[in-house]
Amino acid sequence: MERIQKVIAESGFCSRRKAEELITLERVRVNGELASIGMKVSGKDTITIDGKIIGKEEKEYYLLNKPRGVICSSKDDKGRKTVVDLIETNKRIYPVGRLDYDTTGAIILTNDGELANKLIHPSNKIEKIYFAKIEGKLLGEEIHILEKGIMVDGEKLKPDKVKLRKYDAKTNVTYVTVVLHEGHNHEIKKLFEYVNHPVIKLKRESISFLNVISLKSGEYRRLSMKEVQRLYSLK
After folding, report:
1. Are 154 and 167 in the same domain?
2. C-alpha closest to that of 204 among 110, 76, 113, 68
3. Which of 43, 149, 214, 234 is most buried when burial is the number of CB atoms within 10 A of its CB?
4. Is 100 a catalytic residue?
5. Of 100, 112, 153, 168, which residue is the catalytic one?
């Protein structure tokens, strides 16, 4: 037995919040009777919205190597290309979390709300590894400052690890690896701006055990059920 708004959301018809709104507007029925928010239903129950029968939608899971200049959203009111536009499916999928417009790399797309919530909830501390190209020479003491944690706009930013990969004296740029468990909005850019090394390029290389090494920019693949099960088991 599951709450009706969750079942509606998992069907792909609409979001859980929208489902609650439709229930309040008395547009949802279960076995011909008006539904109520929070009521529990089973697979044997018939749910209708405005007379249309809905059912659980088959789950789909994708790993995408997001290109630069693509919006991390299901749709964009300015008509820009989104990550959903890159996936060939007729299911109502959406990105799990976000990457900035100019940030590339690993992102998961799915229509499984339960898994999406698990992966983005801060308490689960899912590891993400980023590769950054920054201006100037990053010093050891600056790495120490960042790993100790900094305050920006009243918010504490603390990466798990900042590792120097290479410094290119010719171009005066540094290549670094950053490991995060709990990501904040624009966190990596804010971290390096704090020590006066603006980010030139940023790529998310992996989400936990999933990486995009085998995927070219804009390419994607379906996750196997074994991989999905591993994601569910992450703590």
Report:
1. yes
2. 68
3. 234
4. yes
5. 100
Apex CA 192: angle with CA 188 and CA 195, to 5°? 150
Name the band, by pLDDT with cuts 50, 70 and 90, for residue 207. very high
Overall domain count for the chain: 3
Q: Does 220 lie in the same domain as 186? A: no
> What residues contact 171, with CB distance under 8 A and at least 6 apart?
none
In the DSSP assignment, the letter for residue 195 is T
pLDDT at residue number 187? 93
Query: In this predicted model, which residue has the larger pLDDT, 57 or 213?
Result: 213
Residues 105/204, Cβ–Cβ less than 8 Å: yes
Same domain membership, residue 95 and residue 50: no
163: domain range?
A: 127-207
How much is the pTM? 0.78
| 138 and 203 together in one domain | yes
